[in-house]
Amino acid sequence: MTPKSIKSTTADTNLFHPPKSIVRKANIKDYDKTYERSITDREGFWADEAKKLKWYKKWKTVLDDTNKPFYKWFTGGKINIVDNAIDRHLATHRRNKLAMIWEGEPGDVKTMSYHALNREVSKFANVLKSMGVRKGEIVTIYMPQIPELPIAMLACAKIGAMHSVVYGGFSTEALAGRIADANSRVLVTADGGWRRGKITDLKSIANEAMDRSPTIEVCITVKRTEHEVHMENDRDFWYHDLMSLPIASPKCETEVMDAEDPLFILFTSGTTGKPKGLVHTHGGYSVYTSTTHRYVFDIKDEDRWWCAADPGWITGHSYLVYGPLINGATIMLYEGAPNHPYPNRWWNMIEKYGITILYTSPTAIRGLMRFGDQWPQRHDISSLRLLGSVGEPINPEAWRWYHEVIGDGKCPIMDTWWQTETGGFMIAPLPITPLKPGSATKPFFGVEVGVVDENGKEVAAGEEGKLVIKAPWPGMARTIFGDPDRYVDTYWKEYEKQGWYKAGDSARIDEDGYVWVIGRIDDVIKVSGYRLGTAEVESALVSHPMVSEAAAIALPHEVKGNAIHTYVILKAGEKGDKKLEEELKKHVSDEMGPIAKPEAVHFLESLPKTRSGKIMRRVLKARAMGVDEGDLSTLED
Ligand code: WTA
Q1: Is residue 73 within 8 Å of 260, Cβ to Cβ?
Q2: Taking CA 551 as the corner, what is the angle to CA 549 and CA 557, rounded to the nearest 5 degrees?
């Protein structure tokens, strides 16, 4: 069974009502009333949610908007996210509850109670301290999906250091650039990870990246695959060696942080230039991730929560690690490919561990759907209660398959719209919300959205426009690391007068107030739900000695949602052929990572540009899709 179309904008207004059994037990019974309150008494609403967490000292001000758009939340408050995600559970029945179930791709399994997780995190926090890691310093983490990844993140946060996790699928250039931007002195990595039965050689990539990164003094490597790797004297340490030393004591004080102290930076692709490191904080982010997770996924103590995203992306940060642990859930982590060794891998794990909520991307759903119903049908996956989707619009065909075949027609699908910048869900249903396949439904509590035209005027119901957020929320990124001006320019400049946040997506809101997100309107490409910038792909192409200029665009793809198509002008005297096309694809993959590998490389004599020299990607896209090229009056020639 193949999806017939990946068109996400198909209005499918069939309403799917959640089953009574779910509505009856839902954490929130009335959306409208709670929403109304969250808007009219924003600070009161967030204060009530914040009270559910543990604070060393209560805040003085819920929302400080004296320096817009640099909003601050819970100022005066003292908190540490790890105190909430781990420490406070230790005094409760959760001490011996499973915090994490992990399965490696080869089939090895590790489980950890909150007590055990605390030990590991505390030990590694002490190791980091012994390496001189201090409050405020940024540790770069580059790892496969193994337990040591969340452990390293939590260990940093525990001692007040910030982490910068670089997705394990990225390659040398992407890693080196992010290390340099973060000015990291310490890198935590692994010798490799398992993917489709093969070793991904992270340590070699890390070594190459470190050759380009003069700031790194210490590299700690987890032994996962046991293949031969190069370790440098004085710089490289094995994780297990350090963890067995007396310095790795299981007792470690959790650092008392200001609510607004930074927790992590996470690089994400933007419209132009280099990826930007978005900064999230201990206070607001703790409140926002836990509240959204608790209400949207209706989390209960007995739930087994599986967010199948990689911790290297925001989804993994907010909903694999922090939100669920703050809520005391049992989290699932899986190392490898969903179809290895067979396409039943996920369904097998859901059965084996009794997973109750699965949160994944439309790409993963479409990918697994292609193998047919027989794979999930071999397994008893009736433990599932709720399903979730994130990263790109979900097309109605995939929605229905997910709902009927995976959810047995009884699990509501929480389609959550949000961004690295927003920290957590912004538009999402609750388990009580009647669903329309393809719509993320309604704004979360405290979130006000609008869809506006070119002039910033709100469009009529059903009309397409640009998505804006009209008021601040606790999970919002506070700035771009080291570049506050860019933060203002990118997100706040366009609607400065109104004080609105520009999301960079197009959307429409229907007559029932349901939001339909259509996709990016800037030069960000969503490939398989992963966020990439045209600028990064182009700069990887131009770094090849035969390439003079390059342009990258997104074209629709059946499984990936979008695929990267590139247009290249070669240096004088060079000729483009099939062999060079393959070489350039590989070059991008080597520099950036396999997810950035272009679907196609076309050789051109010239690129459509404006008179000021900007590449008109929309013209390339219109030509490729055979549609109207639109206004060409600014075209150079
Ligand atoms: C897209 C991922 C439609 C959107 C959490 C957004 C979605 C970008 C959805 C952010 C959804 C995310 N429906 N589109 N449910 N969720 N997007 O920063 O274009 O990796 O702007 O954050 O993903 O991507 P990011």
Answers
A1: yes
A2: 150
Percentage of residues in the chain having pLDDT higher than 70: 98
Give the pocket of ligand 1 (CB within 6 Å): 268, 313-315, 390-393, 415-420, 440, 503-505, 517, 519-520, 526, 531
Residue 350 burial (10 A CB sphere; 0-12, 13-18, 19+): buried
Q: Distance between CA atoms of 457 and 451, rounded to whole angstroms?
A: 8
Per the structure block, which two tokens stand in for 258? 């200001």
What atom of ligand 1 comes closest to residue 420's alpha carbon? 18
Angle at 524 between CA 520 and CA 528, to 5 degrees: 85
Distance 368 CA to ligand 1 centre (A): 20
Identify the helix (H) or strand (E) that includes residue 130. Answer: helix 114-130
| Neighbouring C-beta atoms of residue 629, cutoff 10 Å | 14
Tens-place pLDDT, residues 226-256: 999 999 999 999 999 999 999 999 999 999 9
Q: Name the nearest CA neighbour of 528 among 315, 279, 358.
A: 315
- What's the 417 CA to ligand 1 centre distance in angstroms? 6
Measure 268 CA to ligand 1 centroid, in angstroms. 12
CA distance 217 to 210: 9
What is the DSSP code (8-state) at residue 586? H
Which sign does the torsion angle of CA 336, 339, 344, 347 carry?
positive
Residues 180-212: tens digit of each pLDDT: 999 999 999 999 999 999 999 999 999 999 999
Q: Against a cut of 0.90, is the pTM above it?
A: yes
Q: Could you tell me how many helices (H) and strands (E) the chain has, helices first? A: 20, 30
Task: Return the SS3 of 150.
Answer: helix
The full length of the chain comes to 637
Residue 251: which of 137, 124, 157, 149 has the closest Cα?
Answer: 124
Ligand 1 centroid from CA 416, angstroms: 8
